[in-house]
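Why do we bother with holo predictions? Because pocket geometry can differ from the apo form. Keep that in mind while you read this record for magnesium ion.
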Amino acid sequence: MGNFVLGKYIPLNSPVHRLDPRAKIIAMLAFLIAVFIPAGWIGYAVLFVIAAGTILLSRLSFGFIWKSMKPMIVMMIFLFLMNCLMIRTGEVLVTLGKFSVYTGAVAQTLYIVVRLLLMIMITTCLTATTKPLDMTLGIEDLLMPASKIGVPAHEIAMLISIALRFIPDLIEETMRIMKAQESRGVDMKEGRFSEKIAAILSLIVPLFVSAFQRADDLANAMEARGYAPGEKRTRYKVLHMRAADWLTVVGANAVLAGVIVLARILP
Amino acid sequence: MPIAFDKVSHIYSAGTPYEFKALDDVDLEFSEGKMTAVIGQTGSGKSTLVQHLNALLLPSSGTVRVMDREITAGTAPKGLKKLRGEVGLIFQFPEYQLFEETVLKDVSFGPKNFGVSEEEAQKRAKEALRLCGLDEQYDERSPLELSGGQKRRAAIAGILAMDPQVLVLDEPTAGLDPRGTEEMMKLFRTLNTKRGKTVIIVTHDMEQVFVYCDEVVVMADGKAAAHMSARDFFADSSICRSMNILPPAIIRTCDALREAGFDIPKEINTTSALAKCIARQVKRHG
Ligand SMILES: Nc1ncnc2c1ncn2[C@@H]1O[C@H](COP(=O)(O)OP(=O)(O)OP(=O)(O)O)[C@@H](O)[C@H]1O
Ligand SMILES: [Mg+2]
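The structure, written out:
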């Protein structure tokens, strides 16, 4: 669990790290939409080059991207097998006994894999280079216009930042409880079905208790310091859009527009 | 059956930027049937050390020998359950491990996991609860309704009910009130002397080490910096001071009195003995 890297912030100093979170969020959204526009392999090639370039620019290693991909591999293999069984278009590629694999199945799987890869690359460019707190500041700002129609922008941002803050704590807590119960003879790996149920209960119950306890403590601590949702407040950290940030926003949307045009003129 | 560490190192998150060597080439042998204190500053590796005793943590290199098991780095040990029944480990702040509907059920959870029958488990649970100072009225209460100190007692009872031969305690009295602390320490000492259990206790409280323990292991920066009898350890307060440890109050008082010109023999170790000794000298000088 400790090696789970998808969505982890990597503290480095790069031009991408220094961009305004709002600019990065808008750019990421634009690129994610672009991934879902069927602009053929040319479109994907363009997006891939941009994403790879951003990763280089943010000094992340491709090994990191690979690690983020790893949890998905089983799913992809499953997907490939399903496609092989279901899709019967194109020409026969190979025949194994009764089954034939069609080119259509391979192409379809490749499309999905490439999309997934692009999505992971693009989101990683955002999550790995933006501190969770900056991210929530950005989200709050971007939601501000919606707060006019009753969307609780600040509360949503606060919710997200608290959730992010507690993920590592909860992982650690889970490990701790697991160890304590293992000391009492719980066997998380081996054991009969009924034993497994008891094992899971002995983990879940304390985890819930402690999560509620933490939530309660935090709520009290926040209230004790005068926090009231919906109140007007100033900010400790004020975000500023600079030239590079505007360029990122305009550039990302230009790429999106380009991909849409490409999809239109494609046969 | 010895409990020994042979060149044991433990590295957390090996191979990541967060890599940390918490145990560094530890050679150590705990004496059987004794009560040994493990002391050392925060982050010196005490908790990491004791979690090797029931194989919750496995060595990154070296060998740990506990009971008749030998756990060597690089091998995947099987059937650790038996070992965990023989070496009972109580964690720092163990109250979070309570989960059953009633205190009694929770305390009998451990023995039942080790194949003890329902009735026998209940019997042992009741006995352990009484030992830990929780009487019948708590048996059917929900563990979540207990106070912090009572939860701690219930959690400790949960391990005692397993009747392990070796008892490992990681700061069992942190956050207990002074009377509770004394009661628990006396209980551990009794289990050690009356029932012959080997007790290994992690603590920051030098008074506890001084009063209750036979031997002392000092951890510093992941290394076992010293291992000696408690008597030798406190005989000369310079050992404590050289390791940045504040000696117990009685030792400090004796030192101060010696500096002021009193003649205090080394074997004095209780307040009443010290008081008599001083009284005698004051009288003699008129
Ligand atoms: N799961 C973990 N991952 C990474 N590092 C850890 C982990 N657990 C402990 N450490 C580190 O290992 C070192 C030793 O930790 P340990 O818990 O053994 O200390 P300790 O002597 O018990 O301290 P304390 O008196 O505060 O309980 C610490 O520096 C700690 O930061
Ligand atoms: Mg500790």
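The CA atoms of residues 9 and 142 of chain B lie 41 Å apart.
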